[in-house]
Specification:
Layout: H1 3-16, E1 20-26, E2 36-42, H2 45-61, E3 68-70, E4 77-81, E5 85-91, H3 92-98, H4 100-103, E6 108-110
Parallel strand pairs: 2-5
Antiparallel strand pairs: 1-2, 1-6, 3-4, 4-5
Helix pairs in contact: 1-2
Amino acid sequence: MESANLARIAYDAAMEKKAHDVVVLDVTKLTTVADYFVIAGASNKAHVRAVAENIAEKLAENGARLDHVEGRQLSTWILLDFGSVVVHVFRDDERAFYNLERLWGGAKPADPCCLT
């Protein structure tokens, strides 16, 4: 499945679980690690887990393979690596601290509505 479509599914799954400030960053010109980062905020650990689990479930239903997961134990920042798409689900205070949007400031924000 095309990486843009995976990013769109991840975005929609995060929104379905009421994640905060969900953004999709096109990082294709900045790194070979992935094509897209999907970054989502959640209000508490249970919310972080629920958002991450929904994203993993929806992407699996669409044939994506989860290569690696980090952070399930603490549930303040869960990283889901689907190869061409890396999803970061943060508890809101952790997201503000790490500020990946600033760190990857050269990344082009992608409009989730136009990803297919």
